[in-house]
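Slide 14.
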Amino acid sequence: MTSTDIQAADVVAARVGELTEIFERGLQEKLGVGASLGIRLEAAGAGFTRYYLDPNPATINAMFTVHGGVLATLMDTAMGSAVFTTLADGVAYTTLELKVNFIRSVALDGSRLTCEATAVHVGRRTATAEGRITDAKGKLIAHGSTTILVLQPQ
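Slide 15: predicted structure.
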């Protein structure tokens, strides 16, 4: 293992630690999508994250299915976090564009939704990522992509 590999592993470990800390703090202080919608971080690594959501009454729409905006939020969170795991210390990000393809509706039946996201390209100014939401049976619920604005420190 080279020193560059070790440095890259240290960056990923630091970003994963930050993600975990942010979500834990949000749950404790009842802030953010973790507290409001129930989105939880399950796993993270270099350019990869997995989040889950157990649909609940706060996540449904007038048709009593999971709201598309909730699914988009789950995907946006996972894709942005996948990019974040690759960024250097002090570098931030924000979503420029989000594209979600909804494949099927989700009933409020206790089935866990999982979103896996991967960073596709991470540059100095922009990044892209892809995500997929599946239900507990592995059926595809939605898939999408994002363009991220990378915010270098001043």
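Speaker note: The longest helix spans residues 3-29.
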